[in-house]
Amino acid sequence: MENIELTTSRCCFSSNDEEFVGFKEDVEQIIQKLTRGTKEREVISIVGMAGLGKTTLARKVYNSHSVADHFDARAFCIVSQKYSIRKLLFEILKQATGEKRDMIKEDEDVADTLRKALYCKRYLIVLDDMWNYEAWEDLQSWFPCVETGSRIMVTTRVQEVAIEMSDPYLLRFLTDEESWELLQKKVFKRERVPLELEEVGFEVARNCKGLPLVIVLNAGIIAQKERRVSVWKEFAKDLSSLGLEEQSRKAVQSSYDYLRDHLKHCLLYIGYFPEDYNIPVSDLLKLWIAEELVPNSNDTENLEKSSKDCLSDLVNRSLLMVSKRRSNGDIKYCMVHDLIREFCSGKLEEEDFKQRIVSYNSSSQVPSSPKDPARLCMYIHDNLVYQLELNGYSLDKISMMDSEEKESLEFIAHPRFYSSKCMDLFSLLDNLRLIRVLHLLDINMESTWEFQNSPASTLESLTHLKYLAIFVKKFDFKWVSHMIDLQTLRVHSHQRIKTSPDIWKMKKLRHVDITEFSFIWEDDEQEEHVLDNLKTFGKCRVSLADMNRKFWWRFPNLEELSLSVVNFHGMTNHSLFPTPEIHNRLQSLEISFPIGFSTSIGWFKSVFPMNVRFLSLAGISLTEEVVTSIAALQKLETLKLFFIHFPNNNPRWDVTDREFKVLKYLKLELVDMNQWESLDTSFPMLEKLVIKDCEQLEEIPSSFADIPTLRLIKLINCSKSVCVSAQSIKEEVENTQGNERLQLHIPKNF
């Protein structure tokens, strides 16, 4: 199997309608080009300079319901200057067919599989950020030319590339009025613009010369300034003398200059990822914390909050783009614009990949103590690796730093570094002190001779690690038990791992995510081991046959827990959560059961932890006891039910006497029911309803039309009668409240 990191997200990018300004006519024209005209396959190319909004426009068009409903299969991929044809075709295949796997089989002919999957279908493929015509030649032969009305949309900043493919659509600049509208939305949000700032604010917007990226970056700067006419006039004057290219560079530089030091470090860290890389936010926050880039405090509880604040600050200043959100609105993936990434790369090179990082107090944003000097850190980069390889991995023999620096220098091993092909990874790491991050999910550790020979001694020198992610055949906790500062442990393995007493030595562990991980339920009454700092425990398998429920009490502060139950035969009648007060910090809970799970065995005769906000259940029978336990959760906002059946072969779900008080998101997938009865009071706060592969369901209760908060119904692989009932609900809402309130989405590419 080939393990790959993809640079695109499954569902494309969520457009932010609140900040989408201008281009309304452009969107309509491009939608017409996509949905009307010839049956032959056509290419629509959008051309414009960097920062003009090509990708934003393409996302807006791609996500429109009229486009989604028109095509049988869709995919949105970023090409970039450096690309892998095999990875691009695999991502297109995943999106077009709805596959969720992240691995390519070594002998798999991805191109041929894609061509067959698209054949005779009306498809839309978006190829974003294409830099040369050769990329198009490499890809286009695998997109069938059958006369089905298929379309390919390309965005590029190179007009010659677009002309080679089609008659290009030249994207215009924003008008002065549109520029001012966008600036207002970014600076004032929903506030009224002070009367005295209207004229000078319009002048600031006009001087941005219609370039959306420049407008939002300058909005992030001016929002930090005093709201005085004289201050804004001076800012507008500085902008007026700059040309378009200068505007872009100046906006990025000024945005960077206005950042506090810790935000500069965080931004440069992000900018070191590859071009157009789709960054998982949950990983990014852990990496920032491990590298000590975020403001800290004596209370470690605030580390995650501090890192989220940094992320939010960079997004609000438009230095980061949100590429996908979770069902609860949290950011799941983010990206950095090419211009900002180029600036970050240039900044790191300019400073010889060195940074002085100071520890900051989170409340005052000042150095925590004058006794704490700035740490001199260097990013491990290609030239450093090359010099070390030439000089036997000895720092003393290379000329990239002076002797004083060599004594105190610490190293930042960015995940990007590990994807490079260094000749001798562990010899390199042995000679670079204070490595805090080791991210090796893309490297099979058993392929290295040192690790094969002695995995424990290979990792022995890495005593300062705070973040470890590795890919091995079989993992042993003994390899890492000496890493007393370890905060995050991620292991991808092929063989099941069992618990070891060594896990209790790592008192600072905060996040554990191990595939194929099984627990041995040891009942050790003599010594109660506790990991107070552990917050997330993901993807672990548990056997309930010999379960000791006290085991889970050893992680009293868990916030996220994901379990896969693999064996329950002979289980005694007890519960994982006997009272709602147990694990009262737990907010996210995922549990999946084997097919055939019987509720008579226990578990759901109890309750869930009282503060759960996200609940995902798979493979259970939805009994009255289960529904009662779920409805009792007063803070539950997201509920996902998968592979659900009902007791006594009665596929009917009646919640007319239940109230899920604050539930906002409900997803039903492969739920084996044909009747669903509900009142508008059952889900009074529901915003999104997603139903997938519920082929027996006859209709959605008509009472959903009376839920005032409902904004979206999405149906995937459902019966015609369900679609008809959803359309009836939408029509009723339109007749009483207008067209904008409720969206109905029935995608065809599943």
Automatic annotation (TrEMBL):
UniProt keywords, alphabetically: ATP-binding, Coiled coil, Leucine-rich repeat, Membrane, Nucleotide-binding, Plant defense, Repeat
Residue ranges of every copy of the Disease resistance protein winged helix domain listed in the record: 273-343
Natural source organism: Solanum tuberosum (Potato)
Membrane protein topology class: Peripheral membrane protein
Keyword Signal: no
Family to which this protein belongs: Belongs to the disease resistance NB-LRR family.
Keyword Lipoprotein in record: no
All copies of domain NB-ARC, residue ranges: 24-191
Stated name of the protein: NB-ARC domain-containing protein
Transmembrane segments: none
Xref: Pfam families: NB-ARC, WHD_DRP
Compartment(s) where it occurs, according to its Swiss-Prot or TrEMBL record: Membrane
